[in-house]
Amino acid sequence: MLRLVFGAVGITLLCKILKGCLSQTSVMLSSVTWVTALLAGIFSGHIAQRLHFPYFWKDLFFLLKVIRYGIQLEIYKWTKRVVTVIDRFVQQAIEIPNKPFLIYEGVTYTYQDIDKRSNKVAQVFAERGTVKKGDTVALLMSNEPDFISVWFGLSKLGCSVAFLNINIKSRSVLHCFNCCGAKVLVVGADLLDTLEDILPSLQEDNILVWAMKKETSYPGVNTLIDKMEEASDKPVPAELRAITSLKSPNLYIFTSGTTGLPKAAVITHLQSLKAAAGFWAYGGSADDVIYTTLPLYHSAASLVGIGGTIEMGATCVLKKKFSASQFWSDCRKYNVTIFQYIGELCRYLCNQPKGENDKQHKVHMGVGNGLRQDVWREFHQRFGKVRMCELYGSTEGNLCFMNHIGKIGVVGRSNFIYKLLFKYVLVKYDMVRDEIVRNQRGFCESVKKGETGLLLSKINSQSPFFGYAGSKQLTENKILRDVFTKGDSYFNTGDLMAENDEDFISFKDRVGDTFRWKGENVATTEVTEILGLVDFIQEVNVYGVEVQGNEGRAGMAAIIVRPDFTFDGKKLFDLAVMDLPSYARPLFIRLQESMEMTSTLKQQKYQLVAGGFNPSTITDPIYFLDYSQKCYVPLTTSVYESIVEGQCKL
């Protein structure tokens, strides 16, 4: 009986236990179903994101960095506690005094070394009352540590510094002083002799010339090195460099444009800070070693390169001049992780003889612009999967694109959020008429996705355009008004771009009177003015032509010879070499009997550019700049073939 009772109780308990288990199992099954559904939803969302928004996370994280940095700049504006690039350098010199800042020709200079040396520069000029806060000082120096010491020393005194292109000739140098209003020039020891013919003119204009030497035979030229050796390395008062607005001028960087002679682009502290964030935005850190072979008088090396090194507290290996044969050995020797480039630089590297250790290096990133797709792919294949980070933006422009994805062949990427922050548009441009297309109401028209158009960037408080020093007309010439509505204004980049369905932006061509060759901007009107000085030339039309295997466009000039004169290749060669930088000298001359004009009475360039320089397809006589003969000589078919095949170096 007891067995039956206990058996019945056991069965009852067992049933309850089973019921409870079943209930819990049901709950567990329900939970599992919910978790499974959630995971399935996440997985499906992930797949959908990868298929339809493949760059979502990269875009998001990159934009968060950009917005974070932008907020910091806004805080500077609101609080008036402005921290400039020179302030950041002084901070780094205090926090990491013994860390290598520059490595130049095997010699290491710490943050403290450059800080103290720049203090010496500041003390020399301060003690003599040579300059005061707000003055502009011109700097004509090659890549060397003292370029930065002088730049920073003058900045510590509250001066603006004008970087002069070391390739420009005497006539242009004098023009540069008129532009920026500088009354003091600091010139490198290796460049003083190049000023011999214009020193009297500079002195007549009451411009004080200081040479980076201990002694000199030139009368009236001051020496700086000897005085720096005797000067104190104590800092000058910090209030001298203090500013209240990020929009105050910091530098003047000269750029060639449509007006002929160099223009002094106004670089504010705001622009300097933005450029200094470039490496950091791409993921750079204090552990990186940056290799800079680009000239410091350009914004890429000075603002992005030196400024970016300071922002991260990193190290910069500075090279006086780019050397393709020494590039990778330098990278290995100094453990370089990031290098700066222009497109031509990478092509030169690819043209070097192959070696077994081509991929044996620590370089993980290249930052620059102008990298062709074919060179990009060849570079990866040859030297490994170095992340190439393209930048787009002119020195004076108010817009920047960054290819943070690393997609081959594009200069940048946009998206919905970026377009909210930075207003830009691609508008229709008539290449044949060489002018912007406007509709019946007089407004511009946007191009469709995938179509090529002229890039314009809206000018507003978010994206100001600071223009050029000197004539207001220079600034006005770069502003396009009444674009979509009456009264609006846009910065005219002069660049033809295209934006595809995935929001990737690619560079197509330049319009107007500027083209790029050997990493430099060539102003066709400046070249035209120089060539026009030759007695046998009646009219000149300068433009750029594509040369197979070369980045940018080579200079070419169509000319009309005056009646009763003949073409003199020797005379033209002598003038070009004497008065034009090497990159601006026309490589080809085309003799014409008449010059075609557009409907707006501009010289017709489109057909000439499209026609190229092939003597087999052009009936006009073509001449070639031959340095071996020191003359412009007839371009033969054999010479043409050697040029396009890469056998003849340009």
TrEMBL record:
A GO CC term attached to the entry = plasma membrane
Main subcellular localisation: membrane
Domain (AMP-dependent synthetase/ligase) spans 91-403
Q: Which GO MF terms are attached to this record?
A: long-chain fatty acid transmembrane transporter activity; long-chain fatty acid-CoA ligase activity; nucleotide binding
Q: What membrane topology is given? A: Multi-pass membrane protein
Where does the record say this protein resides?
Cell membrane
Q: Which domain of life is it from?
A: Eukaryota
Keyword Transferase among UniProt keywords: no
Q: What class of enzyme is it?
A: ligase
Query: GO biological process: what's one of them?
Result: long-chain fatty acid import into cell
- What are its E.C. numbers? 6.2.1.3
Catalysed conversion reaction: tetracosanoate + ATP + CoA = tetracosanoyl-CoA + AMP + diphosphate; a long-chain fatty acid + ATP + CoA = a long-chain fatty acyl-CoA + AMP + diphosphate; a very long-chain fatty acid + ATP + CoA = a very long-chain fatty acyl-CoA + AMP + diphosphate
Keyword list (alphabetical) reads: Cell membrane, Fatty acid metabolism, Ligase, Lipid metabolism, Lipid transport, Membrane, Nucleotide-binding, Transmembrane, Transmembrane helix, Transport
The record ties this protein, via Pfam families, to: AMP-binding
Q: Which NCBIfam families match?
A: PRK08279.1
Q: Which family does it belong to?
A: Belongs to the ATP-dependent AMP-binding enzyme family.
Q: What is this protein called?
A: long-chain-fatty-acid--CoA ligase
